[in-house]
Amino acid sequence: MRVLHLGKYYPPFAGGMENFMADLLPALHTQGVTVAALVHDEQPRRAGLLPVSGSVLPIYRAPCYGRLLYAPVSPAFPFWLARAIREFQPDLLHLHLPNTSAFWALAVPAARRLPWVIHWHADVVATPLDRGLGLAYRLYRPLEQRLLAISQAVIVTSPPYLDASTALAPWRERCHVIPLGLDPSRVADPEPAARARAAAQWGDADFRVLAIGRMTYYKGHDVLIRATAELGGHSRALIAGAGEQRQRLEALIQSLGLTDRVRLLGFQDDADLNTLWSSCDVLCLPSLDRAEAFGVVLLEAMRFGKPVIVSDIPGSGTGWVVRQAGHGLLVPPNDPVKLAAALRELHRDPAQRQSLGTAGAAALRKRFGIGPVAETVAGLYRRLLDRA
């Protein structure tokens, strides 16, 4: 069984979808599935990259010229798709959405002749937080619906997201709920040099709050900053990630007089991220709307046995993950007062932090590890190909 995955990017590009693909592909290989991936090259000035000869996991990286409204711009993608199909000879395509380049599968004859599985990571959420995205979705939706109409199966990451998705409503009979998973062995233990850098960032803080994610419109980092202003003692919040909202967040930190208690770290490599994970007291995911569909960072918190405080977004999988794992507290989205109260609760109760972290580690072993996820996905492939 040979399956070609179409995604946005692939590591070393850092992102939830990308890290999941990096875990899923090797895990599918252990299930007897021969896999390859076509993604966009994360280096915009390159002419793309072909797979390394003899690679067990061939990765095609089509040239990309930046992004427009969060979507990669890659006019050459259809040619790379045709080439990948010709060289890899897949039995099935696995399309990870949202991804505008996946629409080229509608126009490439070799792709149209194959059965498709769509991995629905998130709706394109029309939101007043980003009006340009809402307008663009009017053009995106007809192509999205055409992809869904042609697909044989749709993988959705949580029951609440499926229930709330208007885009998936006409296709519910072909939807399968399979949560995202994590390979804990991919996430390395901290290195000594990185430990020293993390210690310098935390300083003398007696309560260490970590947030990880791109500084973009739906992540709610401003809510965490306002909540931190409500905390007493020597608490400190570190926010790791780059993005277009950085300047606005820096101005907010300045205006609230929090320069010694909140730091924007920018992009962090894996070694530094893993050390921040191991040294924090709690992960905070204060996202605002359903653009935060699942939260891979919630699985990474399980890897390090850390409790979480998460926005319980209606129609999102974030609250569902926390309820299934039992590893954190839920708060209403966009409510810095309630978020501050939850932070104070865990600040004052180290035993509760330990108990929640232990529950998360157990949930990763039993339910959210990449092994069971890959086994379920491979089983879906086999059923579809047998039917075809």
Short description:
The chain is an alpha/beta fold. 41% of the residues lie in helices and 17% in strands. Strands 3-2-1-6-7-8-9 form a seven-stranded parallel β-sheet, sandwiched between helices. A six-stranded parallel β-sheet has the order 12-11-10-13-14-15, sandwiched between helices. It has a two-stranded antiparallel ribbon with strand order 4-5.
CATH topology of the largest domain: Rossmann fold
Give, in order, the helices and strands.
EHEEEEHEHEHEHEHEHEHEHEHEHEHHH
Percent helix, as a range, is 40-55%
The number of distinct helices, counting runs of at least 4 residues, comes to: 14
Mean pLDDT: 93
Pfam family, one: Glycos_transf_1
Protein name: Glycosyl transferase group 1
InterPro entries: Glyco_trans_1 (IPR001296), Glyco_trans_4-like_N (IPR028098)
Domain Glycosyltransferase subfamily 4-like N-terminal: 15-181
Q: How would you describe this protein?
A:
It contains 14 helices and 15 strands. The chain is α/β, with parallel strands linked by helices. The chain has 2 domains: 2-183 and 369-387, Rossmann fold; 185-366, Rossmann fold. Helix 1 links the parallel strand 1 (2-6) and strand 2. Helix 6 crosses helix 9 (270-279). The longest helix has 20 residues, at 131-150. The protein is globular and about 65 Å long.
Question: Which tags fit this structure?
Answer:
single chain; 388 residues; alpha/beta; Rossmann fold; seven-stranded parallel beta sheet; 41% helix; glycosyltransferase activity; Glycosyl transferase group 1; transferase
